[in-house]
Write a structure and sequence with these properties.
Layout: E1 2-4, E2 10-14, E3 17-22, E4 31-36, H1 40-47, H2 54-59, H3 62-76, H4 80-93, E5 119-124, E6 128-133, E7 139-145, E8 152-160, E9 169-178, E10 182-191, E11 214-216, E12 220-229, E13 236-242, E14 246-249, H5 252-255, E15 263-267, E16 274-281, E17 289-298, E18 304-308, E19 321-323, E20 329-331, E21 338-344, E22 350-356, E23 361-368, E24 378-382, E25 385-392, E26 401-410, E27 433-441, E28 445-450, E29 461-466, E30 471-475, H6 490-494, E31 523-528, E32 535-540, E33 544-549, H7 564-598
Antiparallel strand pairs: 1-2, 2-3, 4-5, 5-6, 6-7, 8-9, 9-10, 10-11, 12-13, 13-14, 14-17, 15-16, 16-17, 18-21, 19-20, 21-22, 22-23, 24-25, 25-26, 26-27, 28-29, 29-30, 31-32, 32-33
């Protein structure tokens, strides 16, 4: 008997026992968050290796605590042989996924590995949350089913990462549909490592039996995670916008300092016809707060929104400018309030806009004719670069096919020129210089991602989920508007430019998923590792696919063919040489010092 349960899992019964089961709810995942795990020493502090009670910690003497800790370390010495074998194995093979930990408890616990490759993937499905371990072939760490409490999840956030004193916390927001009480938006706070409820004395508990931390008696129209932390618990503030356009905030005290800078935009989403900018008006202490509309941007009549750009969750800018071959600098236009919007008209022309969401001004506008509405438009933003993909049917110029357009934004067209204002503000009148170029693309695209690293030093690599159910990685060097349409000069070679070609090469080496089909890709999520060269890439839809990608190669890791034996032999030879030459050199030095003292 095959049973599909309400949470999406599948169970196969043979007679009176379960033969196998599968967690198929992940095929309906709508959102995923990477969670950084705590360091091993922080995990040790959290579980308290001395197993002391809080009352005992206040009364025990330092000497007794020292003796107890010493006995604990002596007990751990029994794992030293295994630790030594694992350490030698890791050094010989270069496989750092095996951690040489002498602690028996720590082997089954969640903590960060050496290079930060191990993380938790926290999935949000319709009524379920599932956490997977990236270093253990996607093994399920925990899962929580909320079908009896809510009807559908809307959003999930990591509001607190792993720190010394506190466990990481995630917030899941869902809708509880009740015929008697109406719709209720519920907020759940969970320990991200265990999936258990995380409720403190500061929470506003609406339904104690359901462990709901916060609720509003309506459906949330928009949900934000603000870049402001609650001072006591160090958790990010969540803002909810209800259907009556009233703002409800968690931790009002921390938000008051940020309220003057809280601007946001609202649209009707895909298919909408306008874009609106708002600001929260805190004119009273009690919630909900009213919001005021600052501007409204109506697109031309008949135009509908087909795509909106989104920045990656983790974005670091390593350089404020781009160094050219002659050592001059083009300074990047780094406006964090830009949103890229694409609209399609009834005449099948695609309008591309760069809009400043603070004042609603259009900073750039481009039009592409003969764009097919039957193919989706995809947009992604990162740093000062915007990339969008669409299908063009320009029969006259014989350019029918997929196109990808890249736009680089700079402060000025001329090198070494910046805006006069040292502190960036959207209320200034400066507009960016947009350097754009179009290329023919060999495939249709379902979604676009981009690699992210810890400090943003490596070159970006754009990740295209193809219609062929594969992931195509393309370096920013190919998507560069500055690619010259002439022979390369010495300065171009110094800048490492590639000659312009109208078509992106269909190179099978660019396919990161090799021959593996990843069916039904809907999103690509990336996260930085501790290695600056490496980005963690995760594609999900019907299938789940995880890998590591190094856009600029692994410049901070020794290559696999590096001769470790030669290095060890060289070090050993130097040590032997020092031991042999040390006596005569030392005697000569002493003699020189003695002679100088005499004279």
């Amino acid at each position: 008997m095959l049973i599909v349960s309400d949470d999406g899992s599948i169970h196969f019964f043979k007679e009176d026992s379960i033969a196998w089961n599968r967690e198929e709810s992940l095929t309906h995942a709508t959102e995923v968050e990477f969670l950084d795990l705590p360091e091993k020493k922080l995990w040790t502090q959290e579980v308290d290796e001395l197993d002391e009670q809080s009352e005992e910690s206040e009364t025990i003497s330092p000497f007794a605590r020292y003796v107890r800790r010493l006995m604990n370390h002596i007990e751990q010495l029994k794992d030293f042989p295994e630790y030594l074998i694992t350490y030698v194995q890791r050094s010989a093979t270069g496989n750092y996924s095996v951690d040489p930990s002498p602690m028996t408890k720590a082997k089954t616990s969640l903590y960060r590995d050496t290079f930060g490759f191990r993380k938790l993937l926290i999935f949000m499905t319709r009524t379920k949350l599932v956490a997977l371990d990236t270093s253990n072939k996607g093994q399920i760490v925990w899962s929580r089913y909320f079908g009896g409490i809510i009807s559908e999840f809307q959003k999930i956030f990591v509001v607190r990462s792993s720190t010394v004193k506190y466990p990481p916390v995630i917030v899941a927001i869902g809708v509880q549909k009740n015929l008697d009480k109406g719709n209720i938006t519920c907020l759940f706070r969970l320990n991200a490592l265990t999936g258990e409820d995380f409720i403190t004395d500061h929470d506003i508990v609406a339904h104690t039996e359901d462990n709901i931390s916060f609720s509003i008696p309506t459906i949330a129209h928009r949900i934000f995670k603000l870049p402001v932390e609650e001072p006591d618990e160090r958790t990010h503030i969540i803002a909810l916008l209800d259907e009556d356009l009233k703002a409800r905030l968690i931790s009002l005290k921390a938000f008051q300092k940020f309220s003057a800078s809280f601007y946001f935009t609202l649209s009707d989403g895909i298919g909408g016809k306008s874009l609106n900018g708002y600001k929260v008006a805190i004119d009273k202490i009690s919630q909900p707060f009213s919001i005021s509309r600052l501007w409204k941007l109506n697109f031309p009549e008949g135009n509908t929104i087909v795509a909106i750009g989104h920045r990656p969750n983790h974005e670091k800018v390593a350089s404020l400018g781009r160094v050219l071959g002659n050592r001059s600098v083009l300074y990047k236009y780094l406006n964090p309030h830009i949103v890229a919007v694409a609209t399609l008209s009834p005449s099948t022309s695609l309008d591309f806009y760069l809009i400043d969401t603070i004042k609603g001004s259009i900073l750039y506008h481009a039009v592409h004719d003969n764009v097919s509405p039957s193919h989706p438009v995809q947009i992604i933003q990162v740093e000062n670069t915007i990339v969008y993909h669409f299908w063009s049917e320009d029969q006259g110029k014989q350019e029918k096919g997929y196109k990808v357009v890249v736009c680089d934004l700079y402060d000025s067209e001329k090198p070494d020129e910046r805006f006069d204002n040292p502190n960036f503000t959207s209320f200034a009148n400066e507009r960016p210089h947009v350097n754009a170029q179009a290329f023919m693309f060999p495939y249709g695209v379902r979604t676009i991602g981009v690699t992210t690293t810890k400090n943003g030093i490596p070159i970006r690599e754009f990740l295209f989920a193809l219609d062929t159910y594969q992931v195509f990685g393309l370096s920013k060097r190919f998507l560069d508007p500055r690619r010259p349409q002439r022979a390369l000069t010495n300065e171009d070679k110094e800048e490492m430019l590639i000659p312009y070609e109208p078509t992106i090469p269909d190179n099978k080496k660019f396919i990161l998923s090799y021959n593996l089909p990843i069916y039904g890709i809907r999103h690509i999520a990336t996260s930085p590792a501790l290695l600056e060269s490496t980005s963690l890439v995760f594609a999900y839809g019907l299938d789940l696919w995880f890998t590591r990608e190094a856009p600029s190669k692994t410049f901070d890791v020794l290559s696999e063919d590096f001769s470790k034996g030669t290095l060890l032999a060289t070090i050993l030879g130097l040590v032997v040489g020092i031991l042999i030459t040390k006596p005569p050199v030392y005697d000569n030095y002493v003699q020189i010092v003695f002679n100088r003292i005499i004279h």
